[in-house]
Request: fold
Amino acid sequence: MMTATMSSSAQSEPKMRLDDKVRIKEAIEISNQFGEQVWEGISKVPFTIILVTDTIEFLINHPYPSKDFTLIGYDSLLQSDVLYRKTQFNKHFLATFPAVNGVNCIVMGTPENTDKTSTEWIITLLHEHFHQYQYTYPDYYASVEKLGLSGGDNTGMWMLNYPFAYTDENLNQQYDKYVKALSEVVESFNQEIFEANFKQYIIERENFKQLLDTSDYKYFSFQIWQEGIARYTEYKFLQLLENYEPSQVVIELADFISFSQYKDKLYQSELKSLTELGLKENQRICFYSIGFAEGLILDKLNSVWHKNYLTDKFFIEHYSNRMTN
Reply:
């Protein structure tokens, strides 16, 4: 590490580690350079961050901070005012929500506390910034409410705790067929067998849908749309970074691997998770890999599907008529 852990005393205000500033700066730079190629309009969304350390939270790029934060000053590397307060949020968080004065903030622990390398942490920041893009769309919250899935929970925790039929044995058996077919269609994109695999995938997806009641299918679709496509977005950024040269200070981070290497690692990891994670055991975590894979399928079926993403929400099969049988 380039500097010691943040600390404060009566004589001095806390300071962010240079390593953390470097990683945040790199994520913002990548978003500024490539974001519009992935999602039109994302550059207009503030990249507001709360970096949660063991004892201090640092607030960056917030338009109107709450009074419980104290200004450290303007940071020339981050090109933002930086403020701080004692840690309130979980230091292991990887989340985005309206944490300060109604502004959607990325609330993230340090790489050490979130068990991520510098490369993973930078890309995860882009994942969370995509959530800011989703949540900032004018009718996002009203549209989510219309799904009727919250059960009166106004905290948003229902998104994690919704009582989906994860343990239903028939559903689990069909889930295994569905994700096997999904994996096979992605792996055969450039092969003659693609069309046959695609047809089988559509059949298995529809069979899976038929086993779900209306509310469970809404929840499944919502998770694919929100979290699965966020994971897909990580990969889309990595594809654009094939020839990108990170800043030298990022390259010099001890645990940094190239974005090209990480792209291949992420791809293999997500395809492996598709068939190795169990619905009963891993529950909603399974939906990340499904959304990753189905996003790639949509790219092949309809190259302009992103244009409908925010206006026709929550059911990704709407983005190509070939996604239904």
